[in-house]
Specification:
Elements: E1 6-8, E2 15-16, E3 30-32, E4 37-42, E5 50-52, E6 57-61, H1 64-67, E7 74-76, E8 84-85, E9 97-99, E10 105-106, H2 111-114, E11 121-123, E12 144-146, E13 153-155, E14 169-171, E15 176-181, H3 183-188, E16 212-214, E17 219-221
Parallel strand pairs: 1-3, 2-4, 3-5, 4-6, 5-7, 7-9, 8-10, 9-11, 11-12, 12-14, 13-15, 14-16, 15-17
Length: 226
């Protein structure tokens, strides 16, 4: 089906693998096969913009998703069996959602993730990730960051999330982190009521929800009393 642009088969009992395309010029832009019983690798589709393969038993994805697909906007693959470290780089100039939570991932979180230009939603929770939090980030659009239930260590950098002025959800509980989230950081994540939300990262017509900051008992968070 050379002209097919969207395929949606969610919430069935499909088994086996996702068949790879035999057409290098495949026009498929949306592939949604979440909540099935699929295994193996997520094959590469050269024009894909939105991929949803959550709630399966997939073990890996074609490395070209991170290296050769700048058109990708959403990569949602939580609750699978994707193992091993994250890619060392990701060419994601248009990626807004990266969801790899609930997978047996290992290793640290590469710096490229913190530097993605338009990434809004980052979910790497309930995995086996190690390492420390970033001391710098070029990202300015992050709104939700879920890193809970990993094995992250070290103290909270004093400028952690300094550029994330649209942040309203941060989850760090069930790690091995220590230190402080300060008033200065909290104030960076809080938009004054009289400040316009008209920016390249936000829809100015949307109301910002209440902030959610969830941390370990070993972290003193001045944003809240958790």
């Amino acid at each position: 089906m050379e002209e097919l642009v969207a395929l949606k088969l969610e919430e069935n009992k499909l088994t086996g693998i996702i068949p790879p395309t035999k057409i290098e010029t495949s026009k498929l832009e949306k592939l949604k096969v979440g909540s099935n019983r699929l295994k193996g690798e997520v094959p590469f589709f050269p024009n894909l913009k939105k991929l949803e393969v959550f709630n399966n038993s997939l073990e890996s994805f074609d490395i070209r998703y991170s290296s050769s697909l700048p058109s990708l906007i959403e990569f949602i693959a939580y609750n699978n069996e994707i193992f091993g470290p994250l890619p060392t780089e990701w060419n994601g100039p248009n990626l807004t959602i990266l969801d790899l939570g609930f997978n047996p991932l290992t290793g640290s979180i590469p710096q490229f993730i913190w530097d993605m230009p338009v990434l809004k939603y980052l979910y790497l929770d309930h995995s086996n990730l190690t390492g420390t939090l970033p001391s710098s980030s070029n990202s300015t659009c992050l709104e939700q960051v879920w890193l809970d239930f990993n094995s992250l260590t070290g103290s909270i950098p004093f400028n952690f999330g300094w550029n994330w002025t649209d942040l309203h959800e941060l989850k760090l509980e069930e790690n091995l982190l220590t230190g402080n989230i300060t008033h200065e950081q909290c104030n960076r994540w809080k938009i004054p009521e009289n400040l316009s939300r008209d920016s390249s990262c936000s829809n100015s017509s949307e109301e910002r929800p209440d902030c959610i900051m969830v941390t370990d008992c070993d972290i003193n968070c001045d944003c809240c009393d958790c």
